[in-house]
Amino acid sequence: MSVVNISSKEQFNSLLNSSYFVVADFYADWCGPCKAIAPVYDSLARQLTRPNHITFTKVNGDQQRDLAQAYSVRAYPTFLVFQNGRKIETVQGADPRKLNEVIQRLASEASKSDGAGGDAGEGNGANGGWLGAAVPKGYGDITDQVDLTGLELLNRDSERGMPRSLFETAKPSALSGKGKGKGKAEGGGSPDWVESDTDEQLMLYIPFQSNIKVHSLHVTSVPPAAGEDEDADDDELPMRPKTVSLYTNRSQVLGFDEADDIPAVQTVEIKPEDWDSKTATAKIDLRFVKFQNVTSLVVFFVDGDGDSEKLRVDRIRIIGEAGEKRTMGKLEKIGDEPGE
């Protein structure tokens, strides 16, 4: 069968993680335009379905209300296209020409991306970008939910990258053979990582565009080996993070003294064996029940795995589930509204 009928949120999330592209047709049994365009959708699915690469699904919005709400589906039919678990395209209404255009473009992109996947090591994350570790079944890379304009990072070295560097989708330059740990961002410019300044601590405030559920964090750190950074003495080379404390739903960044007085939601110690030798990434598993309705995250890098006064972080990826956007524009009636 070319089209997969979705019977649960877990089934849908599993497909998002196992198929490079997923197309979802959100419909309702009582929706006239849904029935009119169904043959067009089914025909495209029969022609273009490719196992684990392009998957076509149908989601009954009345039966799967949690999915409809999670992806802000407010009119039927609505067609959503996902790449590596991230929504990249929306077609609202029974418009065969538009639907065919979007799906054919997707098929063309898919033909260029054979072999791209989400395996541990060097997979694809949000925006088809780089991931340093495997994403567990049922969850996705939701780093694109980070509100980059609201980021704050205390005690960073102003000459070593910007906070938003941590959330770039490109592979860290230090892993690309560009400068042996002194790599620059794509196209040159400032370093694409951050380092601490006066001591080894960093305090990062991450606001999100929606209420999210956080399953785990991927932290990448590629400190240079002795002799690779001519700008620093060997005893000043930055370390990888060791102790990380997490705080949720704060309205602003915490001060270092303030963090000492507030119990963390979770504190994690990253052991040397937790760092993947190929991707320089450690996966931090969280107590999922404590990270269910998160609007912001404070990540406090407390110390490092050595005696240096410097700490380095190259990338952070957020793994979990994205909810409905907290700020929504005016809704337009397209086709049939749910419940009509």
Automatic annotation (TrEMBL):
Assigned keywords, A-Z: Disulfide bond
PROSITE patterns in alphabetical order: PITH (PS51532), THIOREDOXIN_1 (PS00194), THIOREDOXIN_2 (PS51352)
Sequence ranges assigned to domain Thioredoxin in this UniProt record: 1-108
One cellular-component annotation, GO: cytoplasm
Domain PITH: 131-338
Pfam families on file: PITH (PF06201), Thioredoxin (PF00085)
Chain intervals for the UniProt region annotation (Disordered): 160-193
Record bears the keyword Disulfide bond: yes
Family: Belongs to the thioredoxin family.
Name of the protein described by the UniProt record: Thioredoxin
